[in-house]
Amino acid sequence: MTITLARRTVFGLAAAAALTTAMPASAADWQPNRPVEMVIMAGQGGGADRLARLFQSIIQQEGLARMPFMPVNKGGGSGAEALRYVKDNAANPHIIMATLNSYFTTPLQTDIGVDIEEFTPIARMAVDTFALWVNVDSGIETLDQYIEAVKAADGAWRMGGTGSGQEDSLVTALLEREFGIRHTYVPMGGGGEVATQLAGGHIDATVNNPSEAMSFWQAGRVRPIALLTGERLESMPDVQTFAELGYPLEYYMQRSFVAPAGITEAQQAYYIDLLEALSQTEAWQSYATEQALLTDFLSGDALQAYFLQERDLHRDLLASIEQPS
Fold first, then answer.
1. Could you say which protein family the record assigns here (predicted)?
2. The whole model's pTM is what?
C-alpha cells in the first residue's frame, strides 16, 4: 500500500526583491531594547541552525534591527529543551524560536507540559524538502538498487538521523513500511553531523534536507537517490521524485518562528514585519532557491491554523507508523 507522507500545502513562490528600508513598519510601536535570543530546536550544523545563522547575518547586513539576534541551540530531547525554555519564558519579547516539525511531534510523544497553541505565531519562511541519500562509494544509483542493498543487509543497513520522533525517523519508518525493508537507525546530534558521517562512509544512508547534504553532493561524496517532493526541484533538476518512480511519497518540514505566550500585539507585529522584510531580500531568496527550500510567507492567525493542521497530520502519521503494515 502506498503511503503519502504528508499533504502538500499549495505554495506561492514569492518573487525576489532587494530591500532598502532599514526598519520594519511596526518599529515605532515597539522594538527590542536588548539582544534577541533566536532559540533553535536542533543542534549545530543542521538545516534549522544554518537558517537561523543566515537570518542573523541578513538582519545585521540589511540593518533590519537595532539590536543583535543571537542564535542559541537547544536541541536536547528532540527539541523538548527549546520548547520548555520558550514556555518557561512566557511574556518575554526578547526570545523567538526557529521551529521544525519536532514542534509538532515532540509534544505529541513526550509529556513535557507544552501545548503549542499557547505560543505566539510569528512567521513561516519556507518549507524544506527531503531526499534519500547514499555515499557514492556504495555504487547505488537507483531506488531498486537501494532496496535490494538494504534487504541484503538484513537489518544492518545504517540509516543516520537526528533522533527518535524527528522528521528523518518518521520518513525512515514510512520507507520501511512502504518497501518492506529494515534499517538500523543511528541517532546523532544534528543534520550537519548526519551529512558529514554519510560523506565519510560511517553510515550507509540518510534522508537529509538538501541544504544539509548539498555541499557533499557538489563535492562528489554523496548521491541523492530520490526526492520526497511532488515535483522535481529547480536546484536538483536531474533527481527523480519517488512519485515519478511510482511511489507518491512526500514529506516537507516547515521553517517557521514563534515567540513565547503572552507577548503584546505590537511585539508580535514587530517580528512579523521584520521577518516579512527579510523574506523579500535577495540574499534569502537566492539561498532558498539554491538549497531547495520552497518559500511561502505565512504569519499570525493563518500560521497558527497551519500549525494546528500539521499537528493533526503528524498525530495521524505517528499512529500509522505504530500500526502493523
1. Belongs to the UPF0065 (bug) family.
2. 0.85
Asked if 279 and 125 count as a contact pair (C-beta separation under 8 A), the reply is: yes
Provide the grid cell at 202.
560511517
Write out the chain's pLDDT in tens, 325 residues.
344 444 333 333 333 333 333 444 444 589 999 999 999 998 888 888 999 999 999 999 999 999 999 999 999 998 999 999 999 999 999 999 999 999 999 999 999 999 999 999 999 999 999 999 999 999 999 999 999 999 999 999 999 998 877 889 999 988 999 999 999 999 998 888 999 999 999 999 999 999 899 999 999 999 999 999 999 999 999 999 999 999 999 999 999 999 999 999 999 999 999 999 999 999 999 999 999 999 989 999 999 999 999 999 999 988 877 654 4
All domains in the chain, ordered by first residue: 35-128+252-322 (3.40.190.150), 131-227 (3.40.190.10)
Task: Determine how β-strand 158-161 pairs with β-strand 131-135.
Answer: unpaired
CA distance 289 to 294: 8
Q: What is the DSSP string of 82-140?
A: HHHHHHTTTT-TTEEEEE-THHHHHHHHS-SS--GGGSEEEEEEEEE--EEEEEGGG--
Angle at which helices 47-62 and 282-290 pack, to 10 degrees?
160
DSSP code at position 209: -
